[in-house]
Amino acid sequence: MKPLADAQREILAAMRRLPAVRVPLDEAGGLVLAEAVTAPHSVPPFANSAVDGYAVRAADTGAAPVDLVVIEDIPAGSVPARIVEAGTAARIMTGASIPAGADAVVMVEDTELAEGGVTVAASVAAGNNVRPAGGDLKAGATVFAPGERISPAHVGVLASIGVAEPLVVRRPTVAVLSTGDELVPAGTATLPPGAIRDSNGPMLVAMLRELGVTVLDMGIVPDDEVLLRSSLAEAASSADAVVTSGGVSMGEHDLVKKVLAELGSVDFWKVAMQPAKPFAFGFLDETPLFGLPGNPVSVIVAFEQFVRPALLRRMGARRLFRPRGRAVAGEQLRTDGEKTVFLRVVVRRGEGAAEVFLAGGQGSNVLSALAAADAFAVVPAGVDMVEIGEPVELEWFRGAETRTMEEVLGE
Ligand code: AMP
Ligand code: MG
C-alpha cells in the first residue's frame, strides 16, 4: 500500500499550472491570482469620517459642553470648501472627507442643535472617529501575492484599488463520468431490478462547481469497452482534467482498467487510507485522469484528498488543503491501524474541548452519515484506537483551504 502522503505528493508534482488570462472582476471569484497586486493609491484614498456627526478641532471640545458655529455641510462624495477654525465645526456624514483644520469627529449622538450651531456634549481626542488615508492599504503596498484564491473579500479589495480585470489562471474545464452497468440516472422513476441511481455523478458535479471550475458532465457510461473508450477519449480531448468513479478496485472485471491502460499512462494504486483505498491516477495524452472508487463516501474522501488539491494546484493556488483543528473523542473510536482513516463525525462544543462523535455508519457506502457530518476525524496510520477524551485531529471539509503543499507534505 502507498502511504497517503506519497500518493498526494506524486499527484501534486505532476500537476501543471494552466495559462494566465485577464477576466472581468465579476467573473474572478474562486479563481487564483497569477501576479502580485499592488495598490496604485491608498485606501481609503482620503481621511474620512467613521460616523455621522461634526468635524471639529479636538482642543475645542476639552471643556464640553461647548457651542460651536456650524460652517458647512459635508455629505459623502463632496469636497469640503472651508477650513474648520477654532470655535467652528462642519456637519459631516460617514465616509465624507475630513475638512482642513479638523482633527476629530464628534458623533451626532453626542451633540444637540443649538442657535446658529451645535452644542457638543462630550469631548473627543485628536483622531477620534477619523479614518486616516491609507489606514486600510498604503499606496504602493503589495496587496496580494500570486497564488491567492479570490474570495468575495478579495473581489472587494481589488475593486477598491481599481483592478477591474485581474490576471488569473484560466478556469479549468473538468469532465466527469460515472462507470457501471448498475447505474441509472437520478431521475429514473422506477428502479429496475439490480439497479441503483448514480449518486457519484451529481455529487462530483456539485463539488467541482463549488471549486469554481467549468464542468463537462458526461453522465453514466456502462461497463462496455467501446463506449468507455470513446467517452474517455472525448473527455480527455475536451477537458483540462477527467474525473471518473467506479471500476478501479481489485475485484472489478478489468474493463475500466484495460481501457485506461490503452488510452494513456495510468497507474492503479492501493493507498493506505480508509475509505478510498483503490485509486487510479495518470494521464490520457496531456490530460490528468483521476479514477475514483465507486463507493460514494470514497468518492468524496478521494476527491478531498487528491482531486481538489490537484485541481487547485492546476488553478495556480498556493493553499491547497482544507483547514485542520483539534478536538477530543467523545466516544471510543476504533480504526484500521494500517491506514489513515477518515471518520465522518459530528463535532459538539463541550465544557472544555470540542468533542467528536460518529455521524452514523462508517461503511464507505453510507453517504447519509457523511451528509450529517461536520468534519472528518483523521486517525493516522499506526493508531487503531482513540479512547474517550484523547485528542483527535479534525479536517473541516467545508472550510476554505488554508494549508500549503509544503506545510502538509514537506518540501
Ligand atoms: P466499483 O468500484 O465500480 O466496484 O463500485 C463499488 C461500489 O460503488 C458498488 O457497490 C457500486 O454499485 C457503487 N457505485 C459505483 N458507482 C456508483 C455511482 N455512480 N453512484 C452510486 N454508487 C456507485
Ligand atoms: Mg463498477
How would you describe what is shown here?
The chain is of the alpha+beta class. It has four domains: 4-18 and 172-320, MoaB/Mog-like domain (Molybdenum Cofactor Biosythetic Enzyme, Chain A, 3-Layer(aba) Sandwich); 22-40 and 138-168, Alpha-Beta Complex (Molybdopterin biosynthesis moea protein, domain 2); 48-131, Molybdopterin biosynthesis moea protein, domain 3 (Molybdopterin biosynthesis moeA protein, domain 3); 324-395, Beta Barrel (Beta-clip). It has eight helices and 30 strands. The chain has helices spanning 4-13, 152-160, 200-211, 225-238, 255-263, 296-314, 367-372, 405-409; strands at residues 20-22, 37-38, 48-49, 53-56, 66-74, 88-92, 104-107, 111-114, 117-120, 130-131, 142-144, 167-169, 173-179, 183-184, 196-197, 214-221, 241-245, 265-270, 273-274, 278-284, 287-292, 319-321, 324-329, 333-334, 340-348, 355-358, 375-379, 385-386, 391-395, 403-404. Strands 7-4-6-5-9-8 form a six-stranded mixed sheet, with no helix packed on it. The protein is elongated, with a radius of gyration of 29 Å. The chain starts with a helix and ends with a helix. It binds adenosine monophosphate and magnesium ion. Magnesium ion (MG) binds at residues 179-180, 246-247, 252, 294.
